[in-house]
Automatic annotation (TrEMBL):
It catalyses: a 5'-end NAD(+)-phospho-ribonucleoside in mRNA + H2O = a 5'-end phospho-adenosine-phospho-ribonucleoside in mRNA + beta-nicotinamide D-ribonucleotide + 2 H(+). This is NAD(+) diphosphatase. Its cofactor is Mg(2+); Zn(2+). Residues 162-287 form the Nudix hydrolase domain. Keywords: Hydrolase, Magnesium, Manganese, Metal-binding, NAD. Its EC number is 3.6.1.22. It holds the Pfam family NUDIX-like. Belongs to the Nudix hydrolase family. NudC subfamily. GO terms for molecular function: metal ion binding; NADH pyrophosphatase activity. NCBIfam families: PRK00241.1. One of its GO terms (biological process) is NADP+ catabolic process.
Amino acid sequence: MDFRLRSVPLLSRVGADRADHLRTDVDAAIAGWAEAALLRVDSRNHVLVANGRVVLGAASAFADKPPADAVFLGRIEGGRHVWAIRGPLEAPRDPDVQAVVTDLRRGGQSLDDVSAQLVSSAIALLNWHDSARFSAVDGSPTKPFRGGWSRVNPVTGHEEFPRIDPAVICLVHDGGDRVILARQRVWPERFFSLLAGFVEAGESFEACVAREIREEIGVTVRDVRYLGSQPWPFPRSLMVGFHATADPAEQFSYNDGEIAEAAWFTRAEVRAALEAGDWSSTSESKLLLPGSISIARVIIESWAAL
């Protein structure tokens, strides 16, 4: 059995122009700052959202020029530059704009493509800067460079770039009408999703799929096939999606202690769970699935639609 994703995962959609050529153009950055938009992200990675769009303030009202710790996100409609900073949220100046405080996990599904890209990029970059203030080579303090897309040791000139942790996520099926869903120990009862794990050094994505599933539930998979990917800035991951086949006769064994339970579910059961909503639902469904911000949801929906 083979299938494709029915839609592009929310955080994988192209919205703003990243305009990477402007990251080292200091004159352009300063010139664009006067009319630039500013995205504020607080210490909990919360942002303000109104009418499906992230709230952007005026950069010039914050400072006369781009601060050293601001990150350049690109350009939006009209060529307007967008920067992001870590700091307290500020209510929109327009009293008619009703904004709410939210984050990507809870409110990401309501964002348009431009906002989703801006927020996910800002969070990933700001999270990296929070933990990369000192060189990984010699421990020296580093300074932001390239509009926040790298950090440089001012003494040695050594440049470090944002770290991305690749992880796989896989829908395991029997080649027919059944799929494995699992619940982590830290999740509430009835919360199930796909199996996932981080890629190890010297390992391919496909090998990681086989190893992680074997470690987590003791099942051997075959015919591992790629589906798609999605940035996941919690704090700086890239989720790479696959599907694979397993034998339902194999017994589950929870070898690494991460998974509390796993089970085979029919396509009809999965469809019913999708109709019941997601993890935020008050439904009494025996199976609750991830929300639409996650590539897991897109993979499950694509399989269920076969």
